[in-house]
Write a structure and sequence with these properties.
By secondary structure, the chain is α+β, with helices and mostly antiparallel strands. The protein has 1 helix and 5 strands. The strands form 2 sheets. Strands 3-4-5 form a 3-stranded antiparallel sheet, covered by helices on one side. The protein has a two-stranded antiparallel sheet with strand order 1-2.
Length: 66
């Protein structure tokens, strides 16, 4: 099972129900909100959002053989 680590937290990707991504292209910012199974929501700060997106893109590349 792949686990997303940020700060002192660990969230299995299997527990993530959905994500919402907000980006500000000209400010070079990206923010991710995670919706977890059971209805919990996490709003990630900029550094954690970047880490999440890096790990999420790596997961996509691995699963899709890209």
């Amino acid at each position: 099972m792949t686990i997303f680590h940020f700060g002192k937290h660990s969230v299995p990707f299997a527990d993530i129900h959905d994500i919402r991504v907000e980006y500000k292209y000209h400010e070079n910012e990206i923010y991710v909100d995670l919706e977890l199974n059971g209805g919990a929501q996490l709003s990630l700060n900029l550094p954690d959002s970047v880490v999440f997106m890096e790990q999420f893109l790596a997961k996509i590349k691995e699963q899709k053989n890209l």
